[in-house]
């Protein structure tokens, strides 16, 4: 693995242990990033901003020339470093900046959920573009689960609400 400056590793994080993982990574001197999405929740007429993980169960750590992968892999709250065989997929700084931009945008313009379970939709972006589906469940004010049919089989996928339209 070549260590290039400003590249990031992906980590799998234990469920509901994001805070522990963040603290332990920081205590060891690792620069970590746990992206979040901001959603607007309306209760009793009041709007409240809610933060939730953008990639539940994952975080990113900046590579440094002397990074100790064994120490990183055994950090409390961390399951492991994401890898494919012996290869560690690296994210470049532009990718992290793009994720940060999406995070900032969700803070500046939090979305309100306006879809109901059972409502018919059309996916308007990504590899499933123009695929019809049905709202199966609400994950958050930013994401829903869509049930769609492909090759005569039903599939369930989580998708951001800005990637769908009412049909």
What features would you describe in this structure?
With 167 residues, this protein is of the alpha+beta class. It has two domains: 101 residues, NusG, N-terminal domain (Alpha-Beta Plaits), CATH 3.30.70.940; 47 residues, SH3 type barrels (Roll), CATH 2.30.30.30. Strands 1, 2, 5, 6 and 7 form a five-stranded antiparallel β-sheet that branches. A hairpin with a 2-residue loop joins strand 3 and strand 4.
Explain briefly what this protein structure is.
This protein has 167 residues and is an alpha+beta fold.
Looking at this protein, list some descriptive labels:
SH3 type barrels, 5-stranded antiparallel β-sheet, 3 helices, alpha+beta, globular, Alpha-Beta Plaits, 19% helix, 167 residues
| Portion of residues within helices | 10-25%
> What's the number of domains?
2
- SSE run: EHEEEEHEEHEEEEE
- Oligomeric assembly: single chain
